[in-house]
């Protein structure tokens, strides 16, 4: 078991700490959490409020609907979380935000390899812009849609990281041979029964010929990626376009 100082730790700043661990407390992530393979700390932003009413938000400057989380309260909450240790001061500081860089598997792998992030969860209309720069927050989005708060987004990010931590998944390779690990979507998977509603498992998978199975899986991965995610297909590292994709390419485009 890793020592308490090196353990991967996610620190969440939220107005709803009771939402954690939530779904992170069950199955793979939950078992790893209770066996000490990672740690989770949910801190209440409201504990850093200074006025009588413990207020954390106010109306938007310039008008408009809703409320905005105050920069001073949020900065105090971040500073309080950072006093814990030297490691805490140097970890990535993320803000879950629909305006952020879309989360990818390679960013997840990078975060999983580090000490674990501090994650700020917004609510209402979001947070005061000034604290983003003042505390070096990196905005991360989980997709082009708007949630009511950053907590579910933070859980998505943490779940994706935790399954890559050493010892969390049964077999180490189950984290490397799957969707996005090589810029490709995963090949189709099958298990018993051998025939389901008239559909047999592809014969090649029962052949016991590992090389043929690997070649089949690779071809399926490539075909799926090309069909469903032309953006991923085009962005694969070190790949010359195949003759087929060159033919299909619209005129007047250049290699990027
Ligand atoms: N008014 C803001 C949205 C606020 S939603 C805007 O239009 O950009 C409230 C909070 O939910 C945000 O501060 C953020 O923390 C979280 N959130 C909403 N959608 C998200 C997404 N797609 N990815 C990550 N966090 C998100």
Write the layout of secondary structure elements.
Blueprint: E1 8-14, H1 27-34, E2 38-44, E3 57-58, E4 68-69, H2 71-82, H3 86-89, E5 93-102, H4 105-113, E6 118-121, H5 129-134, E7 138-141, H6 151-162, E8 195-196, E9 199-200, H7 210-228, H8 230-235, H9 243-248
Bound molecules: S-adenosyl-L-homocysteine.
S-adenosyl-L-homocysteine is lined by residues 96-99, 121-123, 125-126, 141-143, 145-147, 149-150, 153.
Describe the structure.
The protein is of the alpha/beta class and 256 residues long. The chain has 2 domains: 155 residues, SPOUT methyltransferase, trefoil knot domain (Alpha/beta knot, 3-Layer(aba) Sandwich), CATH 3.40.1280; 71 residues, Trp Operon Repressor, Chain A (Orthogonal Bundle), CATH 1.10.1270.20. The protein is 32% helix and 16% strand. It has 9 helices and 9 strands. Helix 4 packs across helix 6. The longest helix is centred in the last third of the chain and has 19 residues. The termini are far apart. The C terminus is likely disordered. Bound molecules: S-adenosyl-L-homocysteine. The site of S-adenosyl-L-homocysteine has 18 residues, from strand 5.
